[in-house]
Amino acid sequence: MRVCQIVSTIKQFGQLDGAAKIAGVYDYPTSELWHEQRGIEKWDHVIGVNLTGAANCLHVELEHMASAAASTGRKASQVKIAYYREHRYIASKHGNIGLTKALAKEYGPVGININAVAPGAIDTPMNANVGREVGDKLVAAIPIPRRGTAEETAKLIVFLLSEDASYITGATYTVDGGMTQYDEE
User: Fold this and answer.
1) Structural domain boundaries enclosing 112
2) In the chain, N or C: fewer CB atoms in 10 Å?
3) For residue 143, what is the domain's CATH number?
């Protein structure tokens, strides 16, 4: 989402009580090792969208949330999405997790909770590009042997943006059917 869209949405509704960044790009791995890949264009693209893009959105959203919290005492929440796989992607998403922790500490005192959600193999158009063999192998590695749904991830996000999560901040929640617990043998 472009920053100007966030500002126009806030102007239209008069306030911002919560926000979730649910976007990213994934650069499918190649057979080349990282040092064998030429140029950093792919790195710049993935980091630019997944980390810098999220930071730009956070900057505008937190500006509005912090001023609203200071003037009204109203609580607000942020949820960021982080996925796992591949070095560029992992670097961008771990950057998001680090940013989540740092900003949670900074904005907790003004009533803004910031958390991250780390989905695994979720059935989305982005993940539809994975070939059948890779997809089958991925699902076989998940203790709950299927892809998750966007709705399952959304339910966690709705909870984290609600008053029921008012004492949760700086956390990363994994929604991956136990995939990251899997120890490849």
Assistant:
1) 3-181
2) C
3) 3.40.50.720
